[in-house]
Amino acid sequence: MSPPSEDSPLALAGIQPEYGPKERSLLLELAHQAIVARLERREILAASYSEHLSEPRGVFTTIYSDQKLRGCVGYPAALMSLFRAVIETAQGAAFDDPRFPPLTLAEATNLKVSLSILSPLVPIAAEEVEVGRHGLMISYKGQRGLLLPQVPGEHGWNRATFLEQTCRKAGIPLDAWQHGAKIEAFSAEVFADVS
Asked: Which CATH number among 3.30.1490.150, 2.60.40.1180, 3.30.420.310, 1.10.10.1590 corresponds to the domain 122-187?
């Protein structure tokens, strides 16, 4: 999986982004600082953030090294302030994603960070899912899986495949979305480091 392009789904759809260039830059820098602070075994320096960046939001942080996925961790629900969620998910992506070994200091200098800031989750019918616009969370019998809005586009999936792959992520039958699984959708404002 390669890093996302700078043309976010929001921009391509003509939707005004919620976060301006300065806020985006600040959040990306915060993610990098959080990773380095953990590597250096120190707390990240406290700072004062705007009311907007202090609002509770769901967020996923994805990190890439040499154009390859290196970790992705996030909170689908708004559990804490956005800036705190960025710190925690950046550190989680770098050190706690079970698919990868913990990041090393040597790798930290060449990372590319991508942030996906999520809207609230809303119930949705399968036929209403729009590939490229919606991210999905599917829940069934105590298990759940989530895929970000950009994932089906990266893989060329149609709606049915997107629903099936979200079920796969949950570890449930691929057709559970047709048999009583709860389907929730969200949008995401996605932005990344400039190469």
From this structure: 3.30.1490.150
